[in-house]
Design goal:
Strand content: 5-15%
Shape: elongated
Order of helices and strands: HEHHEHEHHEHHHHHEEH
Strand order of the largest sheet: 1-2
Distance between the termini: 24 Å
Helix content: 25-40%
Length: 345
């Protein structure tokens, strides 16, 4: 029996990821002096400098970096602008190319401009490896260098695929950073997050690699509030010897996104990743899952569910009763015809 998932809701994930940049602390220290000298706003500087912003760096520290590099006329000018503008908490970590000799307000605007972050690679939750790799060349790394790096990168013990090991986050690499160093830093971050989520210390029979596969299925099939239930459905179906029948695995094979509906012909594709034809877990992860999916893979919510279906966007229902599932499927098809899933196409 076909299980209807949420088909990843990839665009929603992209939008959500872009909003969830690392928040910077605004624990400012007091900067001596009662005045705050500032350059005139709107100046057209022809000279740029690079400002490195670390994860969790305080606003006062950023203010000092801007002043030292000649971006602002004083550290306190940026301090005052940042305190009065809540957007300052959204400045992303990375190496920013900022104009020299500009006012503090313009400096903040430039820090918020993602196009000024050098070597920027943004990996959203649920992204495929094939969707991530072009970003390396966009960041200035050659395709041949990236190809060589993929073969040389060191994976955690027991992991065979790089898919799933590029942890979703926003990365910024200095000019000249090699592709191998960049990719390895992502893999190292993934191993750290997997350990934090418990993939390497789970008492279950699943290996860390298998738990990563489960996490990728969870990421692809539902919304965050349903992750733990989907994780349990996977276990229940495996225990009963039922095929998983996840649309997301076929979408991965076809490299197609955006369609809620999966044709019967698509379920017949000959691939080890096709969970309509093959029993058990697919041979590898089908995307790069975020931390919440990793944690859900290790901590499923107890339940006897065998089926789930997204009746309408953000309305996913779970049941162990095939008749209830079939009734919900009728409701799903009605909503599909009515265009309620149109935003996901």
């Amino acid at each position: 029996m076909k299980i209807w998932g949420s088909s990843a809701l990839f665009r929603v994930a992209v939008a959500f990821s872009l909003l969830c940049v690392t928040t910077l602390s605004l624990h400012f220290i007091r900067i001596p002096g009662s005045s705050a000298p500032d350059f005139a706003c709107g100046s057209n500087s022809q000279e740029r400098v690079t400002i490195k912003v670390s994860s969790g760096e305080s606003g006062s520290s950023i203010a000092q970096s801007l002043f030292t590099a000649g971006v602002t006329k004083s550290a306190e000018s940026y301090f005052r602008v940042a305190v009065g503008d809540p957007r300052s908490q959204l400045v992303a970590p990375g190496i920013h190319a900022i104009d020299r000799g500009i006012c503090a307000k313009d400096a903040l605007n430039q820090l918020l401009d993602s196009s000024r972050i050098t070597g920027l690679i943004n990996i959203v939750e649920g992204a495929w490896l094939s969707e991530i790799l072009p970003q390396f060349t966009n960041a200035g790394m050659s395709a041949s260098e990236v190809s060589k790096a993929l073969a040389l990168v060191k994976k955690p013990q027991g992991f065979t695929s790089l898919e799933g090991l590029l942890f979703p986050a926003q990365y910024s690499f200095a000019e000249g950073t090699s592709a191998l160093v960049a990719i390895q830093s992502m893999v190292d971050r993934a191993e750290k997050e997997m350990r934090r989520a418990g993939l390497f210390s789970s008492p279950e029979k699943f290996s860390p690699q298998q738990l990563l596969i489960i996490a990728s299925l969870v990421q692809a099939e539902g919304n965050e509030q349903d992750f733990e239930k989907i994780s349990q459905v996977i276990r229940n179906r495996l225990t009963k010897g039922m095929p998983l029948q996840f649309d997301s695995t076929v979408h991965y094979v076809k490299k197609s996104r955006g369609s809620v509906f999966l044709s019967t012909q698509s379920t017949l594709i000959n691939s080890p990743y096709n969970t309509y034809k093959r029993y058990g877990l697919p041979p590898g992860p089908i995307n790069n899952p975020g931390f919440n999916a990793l944690r859900a893979a290790v901590r499923p919510q107890a339940g006897d569910w065998l089926y789930f279906i997204t009746v309408a966007p953000f309305d996913t229902r779970f049941t162990s009763d095939i008749n209830e599932f079939n009734n919900w499927k009728i409701e799903y098809k009605k909503n599909l015809r009515a265009g309620k899933f149109r935003s996901n196409k």
